[in-house]
Amino acid sequence: MPNANTRLPLFGKTALVINATCAAGEAAAEALALAGARVMLHYPDRRDAAERLAERIRNRGGQAMAFRADPMVVGELRSLCDVLLAYWGQPDILVGDASHGAALLAALGQTDPPPVLLSYAAVPDFLAAAKVGRRN
Hints:
By secondary structure, this protein is of the alpha/beta class. It has a single domain (9-122), classed as NAD(P)-binding Rossmann-like Domain (Rossmann fold, 3-Layer(aba) Sandwich), CATH 3.40.50. Helix content is 47%, strand content 16%. It contains five helices and five strands. A five-stranded parallel sheet has the order 3-2-1-4-5, with helices on both faces. Helix 3 crosses helix 4. It is globular, with a radius of gyration of 14 Å. The two termini are 19 Å apart. InterPro entries: NAD(P)-bd_dom_sf (IPR036291), SDR (IPR050259), SDR_fam (IPR002347). Belongs to the short-chain dehydrogenases/reductases (SDR) family. It holds the Pfam family adh_short.
């Protein structure tokens, strides 16, 4: 018998939220976690804010981890992706601004299927579509 989490629309999916400590990133990360996704919280600074966000998500029954990396430093981005791949596998969803998409895809390497790339503003519509699709 499935538990309540397995009925969530993003159960079993992994999301990487870039700059999860900005207001838009924080909102996106919390929404994805509430929908059942495991969430890697990237932060360039403000470690305390990232750890508090991860704790809030975990306290609500979600899965989250925080990782610091400078998105302009390829080696740091690769380290973030290596940790994500080691713990949860290939991400299904990448959230951030357009400037990070190409660098993240390069750091991840070839993935099949490729992750869905979303801006912070697109997350609510993506979640609404996921919930509708899950009911069908």
